[in-house]
Each structure stands twice: as structure tokens, then as C-alpha cells.
Amino acid sequence: MTQLVLEQLLNGLQFGLMLFLIASGLTLVFGIMDMINLSHGSLYMGGAYLGAAAAQASGSFVIGLCAAMLGMAVIGIVLELLLLRRLYLRDHLAQVLATFALILIANDLVRMIWGPQPLMLNPPAALAGPVELFGFSYPAYRLLIIAIGLAVALLLYLLVSHTRVGMWVRAGAANRTMAECMGVDVRWLFTGLFALGAALAAAAGTLLGPLLAVQVGMGENILILAFVVIVIGGIGSIRGALVGALLVGVVDTLGRALLPTLLRAVSAPEVAGHLGPALASIMIYLLMAAILFWRPQGLFPARA
Amino acid sequence: MSALLEVRNLAAAYGESQVLFDIGLTVREGEVATLLGRNGMGKSSTVRAICGMLPLLPVGGGELRFAGRSIAGERPDRIARLGVALVPEGRQVFANLTVREHLAAFAANRFNRPDPWTADKVFAFFPQLAERQHHLGNRLSGGEQQMLAIGRALTTNPRLLILDEATEGLAPLIREEIWTCLASLRAAGQTILVIDKYVERLIALADHHSIVEKGRIVWQGSSAALDADHGIWHRYLGV
Q1: A186 touches B at CB < 8 Å
Q2: DSSP states of B48-74 as a string?
């Protein structure tokens, strides 16, 4: 049992860190520009497809990962300059409609290029096997994902907390007008941020590719989770996105793995069989409701 | 002395409702100028227009020149980088930046001023802030926030410093501290445009005054002229 919990905790950590890669871009876009970008999940999907295609063509997972990040950063910049920039001053309904259209376009574009079948993406050969860890074996590839996730979180932390650009980002998230009055060109800052967010979402897509299927529509499921994460963490806060992502990752993974077992121990098998999976899938929403009841602005609100 | 800021026939509106009809004023290099008037007459709107936050009317919006070039239609960040620094109404410190970060994030010396303002120089100017340099902006008292807003503007080493209601809502002792600080900035040669309501203090501090009523400049003159005619105070300032 301890081993199962430990293993699921690691899985939760790994899933949470990938959620963080996706949510960090989303929270900054929402926090600074007050822009709801539903197409963020499409950047994740596009990254997974680009990564899988480039890895297949080159035979190297690392090249696939780099191509995905670079490619989606460029696509992100183009998207921001051509379309999203026009939406910042519009109301949320216009933003939701336009970016929902982007989801549909992206899904059909991917289907036209790669077809309706899911793509296969293999983890690097050296990491395909398991490693011994605390007396049980755990997939080496999942450990790599955890390591990359932690490294990116650390880099983002350093960028946001210890550089002038990071101060501008935080100032922009707290009070955009005042940041502009202090001479910060928030428009270009935001183009750069959007490219970074797209690259991180693409990284998450490629890294999760070998674990989940690379398929059309993969972005929508993760987008909903990412919104839960940033609402829990406080919109506009990178620290909030990290804490929220880890909470959601761990609670969701542990809930799905352990709740049915726990329920079987305390109730009739048929009740547990129905209730377990249902309860497991709403755990993160219960978590969100509880946190919002306690802190309506999320855990680390960027705005005062 | 050459004119640093020139505003001519400025007109601006929030959507359909026009708030500025005919604003004209000049601030010369090294001068302290004021903008006076009762609440809601257009002082803050004038400041917002100068800083690029309130667009001029597309037709008949008037002229806005800074350091010899037109800044009408420029974005706020561009105007700031040209050398206009704002200490805004309500102070607007960043809740998620520490005091030291406020003074480091925007620091610049774009006009190669000798002995420029730095975070450490601001701390020497406002010793109270030095004690709280690792506190977040929203953990400060009102007076400390005001000092921080002034310090933050100074670290950009601006050619023109604009203070919008810098003494509003402060305790009398803190208010005096702010006036002393403005006097020493003036002595150091800083060009300043002040919006405030303490006429006696402003007469002592400033060279030149403009009074705004219902979006129009209705009186302009020197400190001596304003001091001599208390009828103006009653008529336009309600003092």
C-alpha cells in the first residue's frame, strides 16, 4: 500500500509539473492582458504533433522536443501579432469566441496534416526501461519528466523573481497601466511572454506524448485542468500556478488511484464501484470549490 | 529657459463625454508649475492626457509637445521613456513588488544625468523606506507608499516629474515631509508639475500656476500674482 501511494505520489508530481508548464503561460496571459485564451490547449496539442513528427523524422526525441518548442514559439508570436493583440481591449465574450474558433481551426488543421489516427511518440531509448527507486521500480522516463518539470519551474522562478524582466511581468500583472507609465513596453513584453508560454505548452505536449496519445482534441481536456489550476493558484501568479498545478496533479492522480480502493473498504462493492470513479473525477473541482470558498481570489492573487 | 512641456488647446473625452475643452500650459526646464482647480474640473484628466493614458480628440484635440517634439498619440510607455515620470493619484504602488524592486525595476538614466537617482540615493532621501526595503508595496503605510511612488518615479531620472495629489489622504506631519522633499527636489533643479490643493504651500514652492475649471484653463500667473489676489482663490478653488 505504501508503495502504491508513493508511486502514485510520483505520478501526481509528474502530472502536476506538466500541468504547471501549461498553466504558467495561461495565467500570465490572463493575468496581465486580462485575456481569456481558450486556444492555449491547441498550442499544447500543436507542440505534441510537431514534437512527434520531428522525432520520427530525425529519430531523436531531443530534436523533436526542441523543434516543438521552437516551432510553437514562432507560431505563438505570429498568432499574437496577427490576432490576439486585437482582442485585448475587447470583452471576454469576443475573446472566448475568437479563441474557440482557433481551437476548431487547429483541430482540423492537425487532422488535415497528420490524419485522424493518433501519432506514436516513443520515449528516448535509453529511458524506456524502469529504474529501482526506494525499493520499487519506476519508469525512468517519468523521472526525467519530473526532473525537467522541476528545472523549468526553477528557471521560471529565477526569471520572475530575480530579473528586471520578471519585475516588469509582475508589475504588469498587478497594474498594467502603471507599469506602462513607468516605461515598460507591455505590448512587446507580452509578445515575448506569449512565445514563452507557447514553448512551455509545446514542451509539455511533447513530454507527455509517450504517456498519453498524441491525438486531435487532446488540448481541450488539459485546458480545463489548466484553468482549474490558475483559478486555484490566483490569476497572474507563477507561484500560484506551481502550487495549484501540484495540488491538482496530486489530488487528481491519488484520487483516481486510491479512492475506489478506499471506498471498497468502507462500503458495499456495488456502491463503491459506481461511486469511486465518479467521485475521483470530481475531486479537483471539489478542491477548487473549497479553496475558492476560503480564498475567493485564489491562493496567491497577483492583483491587490 | 526653454519650454520642456507645451500643451496647446488640448481637448479630450472619455467615450462620448468630453472632459477637456481648452487646456494650455507650459512648463519650462527647471521650473515648478502647478495645476489647480476644484475636484472634477479636469486636473487628473489633463495629467492622463499628458501621460498618454487619455487620447486627445482626433479632430481639434490640440497640441502636446515634450522636449521639442509632439507626443500626441504616443503610448504611455514611450512618453515615459522620453522622460516624463508620474507619481499618480492614489500612489498605485505594485502590491507584489518589494520596496527595493520598485526602485530597481524601472531605474534608468536615459539623459546621462550626472549623479543620477538610484535605489540607494532614494533610501538616503527617504530613510524610512530603507528600513522597509524588503516589504511588499501593499504592506506600507500611506505615507511610505507616497514616498515609494515618488522614489520610483525619481529612479527613472525623468526630465519632468508629475505629481498628482501627492499629499492627499496623508497625516499633516507626513504631508509636511512631502513638501520638504519637493522643495529639495526643486533646489536640485528638477522640473516638476504639481497637482494639489494646498494653495499656500504651492505658492511657496512653485513659479507658475494654472487654474482649470470645467476642462478649460481660466487663469494663469506667477506665485506673486496668485498670492496677491485671494478673489481668485474663492472663485476657482473654493478656499
Answers
A1: yes
A2: HHHTTSSPBPTTT--EEEETTEE-TT-
